[in-house]
Amino acid sequence: MQVYRTADEPTGISTGALVVPFFSGSPLEGAAQQVDAALDGVIAGALASGEVRAKLGDHILAYAKGQPYRRVLAVALGDAASFSPSSLARYAGLAVRYLGRRNVEKIAIALPAQAAGREAECASFIAEGAITGAFDTTLYQERPERRLATSEVAVPGAGFDAAAVERGIARGTAIGEAVNLARRLAVTPANDMTPTRLAEEAEKVARASGLEIDVLDEARARREGMGSFLSVAQGSAQPPKFIVMRYEGDPSSKELLALVGKGITFDTGGISIKPAEHMEDMKYDMSGGAAVIAAMSAIGALKPKLNVVGIVPATENMPGSKATKPGDIFTAMNGTTIEVINTDAEGRLILADALVYANKLGATRIVDAATLTGACVIALGHASSAAVTNDERFGAAFLAAAKPTGERYWQMPYYEDYTTAMKSDIADLKNTGGRPAGALTAAAFLREFVDDTPWVHLDIAGTAYLDAESAWQAKGPTGVPVRAFVAIVESLAGGDKGNVRSNGARSEELAV
């Protein structure tokens, strides 16, 4: 997908379809008003009929006889008073999916009048949404029934700051491509996306993005004392890989943000085996790790002034002859002993050693992401990811940075009661505290491995993949939390790169 700026007026652009925005309960303005006048009021007429409610995503298609654009797709952005630039990603994604299915190869997507003064931010979301809207899940179909035809998106820039629009498109392209990378890694079946293959994909990203990479094999992980990580790996015939990617954005600084992602490339539950129904979705259990790898690719492209390390402990969780048994005890890298009560609570076991390793590398802040608990899905459904922190200031900084991205996070509490629930009678900790507050006892377990380093834990179990497609997004993996990872990096880095998208907080307020 190519997204670029053109100097044309929207009504003068030659393209297969021109996409224009409008708002509910408001007069047509900007490109929509110009197009409506050129087409003798076709958009206004459709709105007056009452057939279009003008909720976000509602749309009107008209053919434009005698115009340089063959079609017009008018898309509602909802109420103008509550307009958020992030809605433009859905606007663009809908346009690409709707028109692409109708074999329209080249389209133009107009900025709303509200983009004036916020051109970079708005153009960024349009580029991101167009690219993510084009994501194709038919990777293994020899003759797919329907693929999206749209391959080129122009953004008419007449009347807007040209440099800002181009800067926004460049950033949105980097984010969109990173999100799609995470989705491709996640949607690939586990017989192909093994820990070894995931490490190879990370190596490709590192080479392309100018990052350093180090992949620890089982022998090195054992020398590091990663007994918790290896306890999960021992039931699989696939060798584990512990992936470490480094970006040096500020060599003069000792600040280091660690992004840590769960990389279970397939989760059977181990000896505590899962029910067969929907087990095929457990290829998505490496979505947190995929997001780390993808975010590092975007960070390498955007070059924020911040040092970042991405860590992905990757393994399968299988019930092989050497698999961990309930009741077994293992020692994590920091010396903590862990009694395994349920082998299906494996994500926290591999993350424990990854968090300790992040501190060993000198991390001054940590954000981890994992499809960790079904309890999180019960609590928040598929509408939001959970966030838990040991540092309220850093937690607030993360939420402020992530909010404008369109990804949703809801902060959940931490109380000592949750850690108490994870105490073992025979070891230091056990790996499950039972059904009550399962998402929070899991977070409390992880907290024991970050020491005093400011840390935010993201449980993305309900948001990492979707069971049904939307108008702007394919069914399957979503790429959460790539956008939030990049946003917190840019916010901490400060400067102009961090201000392409407004996050409502100045960079000095985010320095913790």
Overview of the molecule:
The protein is α/β, with parallel strands linked by helices and 512 residues long. It has two domains: 2-155, 3-Layer(aba) Sandwich (Leucine Aminopeptidase, subunit E, domain 1), CATH 3.40.220; 179-510, Zn peptidases (Aminopeptidase, 3-Layer(aba) Sandwich). It has helices at residues 30-38, 42-48, 87-100, 119-133, 162-187, 195-209, 218-223, 227-233, 287-302, 347-360, 374-380, 392-402, 416-420, 438-447, 482-493, 507-510; strands at 2-6, 17-24, 59-63, 71-79, 106-109, 152-156, 212-216, 241-247, 257-261, 263-267, 308-317, 329-331, 337-339, 365-370, 385-389, 409-411, 429-430, 455-459, 465-466, 476-477. Strands 7, 8, 9, 10, 11, 14, 15, 16 and 18 form a nine-stranded mixed sheet that branches. It has a six-stranded mixed sheet with strand order 1-6-5-2-4-3, sandwiched between helices. A three-stranded mixed sheet has the order 12-13-17. A hairpin with a 7-residue loop joins β3 and β4. α12 packs across α15 (482-493). The longest helix is centred in the middle third of the chain and has 26 residues, at 162-187. The protein is elongated.
